[in-house]
Write a structure and sequence with these properties.
By secondary structure, this protein is mostly helical. Helices cover about 75% and strands about 0% of the residues. It contains three helices and no strands. The chain starts with 6 loop residues before the first helix and ends with a helix. The relative contact order is 0.20.
């Protein structure tokens, strides 16, 4: 399996995580979704980093729902 730990992927994941941690859930959701789709396009649908991104998206959706930012 190819490696998806290139600097751009890592930067984008960190940016999404910061947005999520800062309570900017809508932004985080979009960032995780975009990153996950890009990783899938480059490395395949079930690549671990794509799954990580979609798990981050799901977590941010849950937090947004719990905080009333649906």
């Amino acid at each position: 399996m190819q490696n998806a730990t290139d600097p751009d992927t890592e930067r984008r994941m960190a940016d999404a995580e910061r947005a999520e941690e800062g309570g900017q859930y809508d932004e985080a959701i979009q960032m995780y979704a975009s990153l996950g789709k890009d990783i899938q396009a480059r490395y395949g649908s079930f690549h671990g980093r794509a799954i990580d991104a979609f798990e981050g998206m799901a977590r941010a959706i849950r937090k947004a729902s719990a905080s009333g930012n649906e």
